[in-house]
Amino acid sequence: MIRPPLLLDENIPYGLQGALRQRGWDAVHVKDIGMRSASDPEVLEAGIRSNRVILTYNIGDFSRLDDMLRRTNRRHPGILVSIERSIGDLVERLEAFDFSQVHSSFRHL
């Protein structure tokens, strides 16, 4: 199973990082890289620079950012969006998710 490195947006529960790491994931929360209160474009750029798939609850803004990148033919590691869920549910969904087609795409978890 493919487990790409993840960048967890500020609105994702902080405890998800630890839960994923216990299962062997490379997951980083924006709070741990000095990006607390960073704008969505800044989070996207951090994901691109670090080659990490972004996980966020912010469907609207990241959908628009993905559209902007597509219009300029710019690639990104991938954006996963979700409705608010428990940490356990997020872990379950991430472990079952097919990441083989996530590069430069906008997907619902």
How do the strands and helices of this protein lay out in sequence?
Blueprint: E1 6-8, H1 15-22, E2 27-29, H2 40-50, E3 53-56, H3 59-71, E4 79-81, H4 87-96, E5 106-108
Parallel strand pairs: 1-2, 1-3, 3-4, 4-5
Helix pairs in contact: 1-4
Can you tell me about this structure?
This protein has 109 residues and is an alpha/beta fold. The chain has one domain (6-108). The chain is 39% helix and 15% strand. The protein is built from four helices and five strands, in the order E-H-E-H-E-H-E-H-E. The chain has helices at residues 15-22, 40-50, 59-71, 87-96, and strands spanning 6-8, 27-29, 53-56, 79-81, 106-108. Strands 2-1-3-4-5 form a five-stranded parallel beta sheet, sandwiched between helices. Helix 1 (15-22) packs across helix 4 (87-96). The radius of gyration is 13 Å and the shape is globular. The mean pLDDT is 94.
What labels describe this entry?
five-stranded parallel sheet; alpha/beta; 39% helix; 109 residues; 5 strands; 15% strand; globular
Number of domains: 1
**Number of H/I helices:** 4
- Estimate the helix proportion, in percent: 25-40%
Order of helices and strands: EHEHEHEHE
Could you give the order of strands across the largest sheet?
Answer: 2-1-3-4-5
